[in-house]
Amino acid sequence: MTGPPNKRQKREEYKKAQVDFKASANGPGGGKIELPKKKFYRQRAHANPFSDHALTYPASPGDLNWTTHYPAFAKNQDGDGAASVMTQEVEVADIGCGFGGLLVALAPLFPETLMLGLFFLNPTYILPN
């Protein structure tokens, strides 16, 4: 015995019904097209960038080449330009910083501290220039 249809199946049935309804709306006795129903669509708060993309990321913080992110604090180790080391370490990391309000507030309090803000989501709106 089968249970009730799952959401994907309901959504497909709904889409097929809308296509059939639009086709009949063009003929005599056509009806009004309804807006999409929320129950047929799954909303997600965020997407995990590591599962949605093929990003290469270091196994540990020690494996990360920080000199690409902070070139002003990079110092060539042997003078040939190949290997670089950081002259100062990143001490504060704000994960999910949004527009960076906390980092902007902390910057005057800790002027000699390197800070990093990470925000993974695409903005759902566009700011005016």
UniProtKB/TrEMBL annotation:
Catalytic reactions of this protein: guanosine(46) in tRNA + S-adenosyl-L-methionine = N(7)-methylguanosine(46) in tRNA + S-adenosyl-L-homocysteine
Matching entries from Gene3D superfamilies are given as: Vaccinia Virus protein VP39 (3.40.50.150)
Enzyme Commission no: 2.1.1.33
Q: Which residues cross the membrane?
A: none
Q: Would you tell me the Gene Ontology cellular component terms? A: tRNA methyltransferase complex
A GO molecular function term, named singly, is: tRNA (guanine(46)-N7)-methyltransferase activity
Say which enzyme class the record assigns: transferase
PROSITE patterns named among the record's database cross-references: SAM_MT_TRMB
Query: Record's InterPro entries?
Result: SAM-dependent_MTases_sf, tRNA_(Gua-N-7)_MeTrfase_Trmb
Q: Does the keyword Transmembrane apply?
A: no
Name the UniProt key words of this record, in alphabetical order: Methyltransferase, S-adenosyl-L-methionine, Transferase, tRNA processing
Q: Does the keyword tRNA processing apply?
A: yes
**What's the protein here called?**
tRNA (guanine(46)-N(7))-methyltransferase
Q: Which organism is it from?
A: Cladophialophora chaetospira
Q: Which gene encodes it?
A: TRM8_2
